C-alpha cells in the first residue's frame, strides 16, 4: 500500500493538523515508511509466543482488593460549606 500526497492531505485534515502544501510530500514519505515497517512486523511468526509486559520478567506489585470507605468522611465533609448528618447539604433545585 502506498500513500500519495492527496491521501496525506486527507489524513492531516482528519487529524486536524495543519500541514503546508510543500510539507505534504515528506509527510506522505513518512506514512509510507511507517506502513513499510508495519508490513515487516506482519511477517514475523509470533505463534506460541507469550505476550509480555516488560523485557525483564517481574511480578507486578499487588495489594489486597478490599472495599473500604476511605475512613476520611469527617476530613472530606470539613471542606463542605454545609454538611448535615454525614452528607453534603445542597440547596433544593427541584420543587
UniProtKB/TrEMBL annotation:
The EC number(s) this enzyme carries: 6.3.5.-
Keyword GTP-binding: no
Molecular function, one GO term: ATP binding
Alphabetical GO biological process terms: glutaminyl-tRNAGln biosynthesis via transamidation; regulation of translational fidelity; translation
Enzyme class: ligase
Known catalytic reactions: L-aspartyl-tRNA(Asn) + L-glutamine + ATP + H2O = L-asparaginyl-tRNA(Asn) + L-glutamate + ADP + phosphate + 2 H(+); L-glutamyl-tRNA(Gln) + L-glutamine + ATP + H2O = L-glutaminyl-tRNA(Gln) + L-glutamate + ADP + phosphate + H(+)
Gene3D superfamilies named in the record: Glu-tRNAGln amidotransferase C subunit, N-terminal domain (1.10.20.60)
Record InterPro entries: Asp/Glu-ADT_sf_sub_c (IPR036113), GatC (IPR003837)
Keyword Glycosyltransferase set for record: no
Domain of life: Bacteria
Keyword line: ATP-binding, Ligase, Nucleotide-binding, Protein biosynthesis, Transferase
HAMAP family according to UniProt: GatC
Oligomeric form and interacting partners: Heterotrimer of A, B and C subunits.
Function text: Allows the formation of correctly charged Asn-tRNA(Asn) or Gln-tRNA(Gln) through the transamidation of misacylated Asp-tRNA(Asn) or Glu-tRNA(Gln) in organisms which lack either or both of asparaginyl-tRNA or glutaminyl-tRNA synthetases. The reaction takes place in the presence of glutamine and ATP through an activated phospho-Asp-tRNA(Asn) or phospho-Glu-tRNA(Gln).
Family (UniProt): Belongs to the GatC family.
Listed name of the protein: Aspartyl/glutamyl-tRNA(Asn/Gln) amidotransferase subunit C
Organism field: Celeribacter marinus
Gene symbol of the encoding locus: gatC
